[in-house]
Write a structure and sequence with these properties.
Blueprint lengths: L5 H24 L2 H17 L10 H19 L1 H6 L1 H7 L6 H16 L3 H12 L4 H8 L3 H18 L1
Helix pairs in contact: 1-2, 1-3, 2-3, 3-8
Length: about 160
């Protein structure tokens, strides 16, 4: 019995998991456009070695991991914009709480983030807002993990003192 054509299988995987991946990525990026771009990039990578799909046991988690890694690559390429564009920082302050809490939290965040260097802002937002781990942030910002941990610890300590 022969295996299904890998290209047909990839199309089936795409159709079956597209909605899940899109929702997953929109949750991380808050952008339909970036989510679609990441999905296209992910499947472009898969098409380079289509037979790889035969080796995958848990397709959904494999695709989610691939999407997350592709997103990290995307942010690495966009890193200069991320670190220097104040609108990015502002847009990251949007929260899903009550309007009253939003105002208080945003004022505190703006005050604290305003005193940080661009690199420290990126570390704090990546860790606290996006939930990246130290390894991912290390790769994203090209900093040693030990440096990240000490910077993050000092920032948290300062926030507690001032809060």
């Amino acid at each position: 019995m022969s295996k299904i054509n890998p290209l047909e299988m990839i199309e089936e995987i795409y159709n079956e998991h597209y909605a899940y991946l899109r929702n997953f990525l929109i949750g991380l990026t808050k952008s339909d456009e970036i989510a679609d771009e990441i999905i296209q990039e992910l499947f472009s990578k898969i098409l380079v070695t289509p037979t790889i799909v035969y080796k995958v046991d848990y397709m959904k988690s494999w695709l989610a991991r691939g999407a997350k890694n592709t997103l990290l690559d995307y942010y690495k390429k966009k890193k200069p914009v991320l670190l220097h564009d104040e609108n990015v920082i502002e847009s990251l302050l949007i929260d899903h709480r009550t309007p009253e809490k939003d105002v208080i939290i945003n004022e505190r965040l703006e005050t604290v983030l305003g005193k940080l260097s661009d690199t420290d802002k990126a570390i704090m937002l990546a860790k606290e807002y996006y939930g990246y781990n130290y390894q991912e942030i290390s790769e994203l910002l090209n900093l040693p993990i030990s440096t990240l941990k000490s910077k993050f610890f000092r920032m948290r300590k300062q926030m507690i003192k001032k809060g």
